[in-house]
Design brief:
Largest sheet: none
Radius of gyration: 24 Å
Order of helices and strands: HHHHH
Oligomer: single chain
Strand content: under 5%
């Protein structure tokens, strides 16, 4: 009996480290998308299972709803309370890691900074959250075949242009993946109270 190792089947290319890395990245992105879609599905199921919810509820004007708390109706994450904000960030982090960055923003350079501590940057947190909300809506099958393209054009690309610009919120953070860095930029000074118009007095302007 021969002990020689048989050759690879004809037509089968060698599996390289680069190929394995691509497969792992693709699998991670698919898993993140699956997990995010499962979260959305669970939320929709909870709404459908609510016995107090009817089709008429969907048409209610929130301004006329009795006892409705404005903070609880806002979709802007910076308006969430601490517990809700923490849960929302935990939920969307796999999407940020495996889809937003791995698929669309893997390269980190001086012209494309990134920060692994992005939840601490309020501007970045708000922009990423808004893009994530749009992704949930526009990648749903009910958005039609053009939904993902609309999301990429109207939400993803503007986000990346602003978020990873040298003068964006990460301008003082990591510009070299081998040297992670994080620094919060100072906020501009708040409005000078003496500049506010006063009723009954002429407004000063330049």
């Amino acid at each position: 009996m021969s002990n020689s190792i048989p050759d690879d089947p004809p037509g089968r290319g060698a599996v390289t480290a680069e190929t394995l890395a691509e497969w792992r990245a693709t699998l991670a992105a698919l898993q993140a998308e699956r997990d995010s879609l499962a979260i959305v599905t669970d939320r929709l199921a909870q709404e459908d299972d609510d016995p107090d919810r009817s089709e008429l509820d969907l048409d209610l004007d929130l301004d006329e709803a009795d006892g409705e708390d404005d903070e609880n109706t806002s979709l802007t994450i910076l308006a969430f309370d601490d517990d809700a904000l923490a849960e929302e960030v935990r939920t969307m982090t796999p999407w940020v890691d495996h889809i937003l960055i791995s698929a669309f923003g893997a390269e980190i350079t001086s012209g494309k900074p990134w920060c692994a501590r992005w939840p601490e940057h309020d501007e970045a947190l708000a922009r990423i959250h808004h893009c994530w909300l749009a992704w949930q809506e526009l990648t749903d099958s009910r958005s039609g075949a053009t939904g993902p393209s609309v999301w990429q054009r109207d939400h993803l690309e503007p986000l990346l242009l602003k978020l990873r610009s040298p003068d964006g919120p990460f301008g003082a953070c990591t510009t070299n993946p081998d040297h992670p860095h994080h620094r919060l930029l100072p906020h501009p000074p708040h409005t000078d109270p003496s500049s506010l118009p006063v009723a009954g007095e002429p407004r000063t302007s330049v």
